[in-house]
């Protein structure tokens, strides 16, 4: 992205009257987890989730794991906004 397309400020609505208070609580938990400001915590979490998902994909693509092991790993990493599923297809060619 270039400087012209990046906004100077991004706001996250957290109005508890609009049932959005959980957003603020999530940001506070992230700030506490990382030990940084709320702004940095949002950036860290956004960057980290991409890296974690790529790592999970890499682990689940290993050939030395059984289907059951892959399913257990997928269940461990599944989250509210990230659905991790394992499908194994078998094909026979003649």
Topology (elements, then pairings):
Layout: H1 21-34, H2 38-60, H3 67-77
Helix pairs in contact: 1-2
Description:
The chain has helices at 21-34, 38-60, 67-77. The chain is mostly helical and 94 residues long. The longest helix has 23 residues, at 38-60. The radius of gyration is 19 Å and the shape is elongated. 1% of the residues are buried. The mean pLDDT is 86.
Low-confidence stretches: none
Mean pLDDT: 86
Shape: elongated
What about the largest sheet?
none
Q: Report the sheet-strand fraction.
A: under 5%
Gyration radius from CA atoms, angstroms: 19 Å
The helix/strand order is HHH
Number of helices: 3
Helix residue percentage? 40-55%
Produce a short descriptive summary:
With 94 residues, the chain is mostly helical. The protein is 51% helix and 0% strand.
Tags for this model:
single chain; 94 residues; mainly alpha
């Amino acid at each position: 992205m270039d400087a012209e397309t990046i906004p100077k400020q991004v706001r996250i609505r957290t109005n508890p009257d609009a049932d959005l208070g959980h957003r603020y609580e999530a940001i506070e938990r992230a700030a506490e987890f990382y030990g940084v400001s709320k702004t940095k915590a949002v950036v860290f979490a956004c960057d980290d989730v991409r890296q974690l998902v790529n790592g999970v994909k890499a682990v689940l693509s290993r050939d030395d794991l059984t289907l059951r092991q892959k399913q257990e790993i997928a269940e461990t990493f599944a989250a509210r906004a990230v659905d991790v599923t394992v499908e194994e297809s078998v094909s026979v060619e003649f």
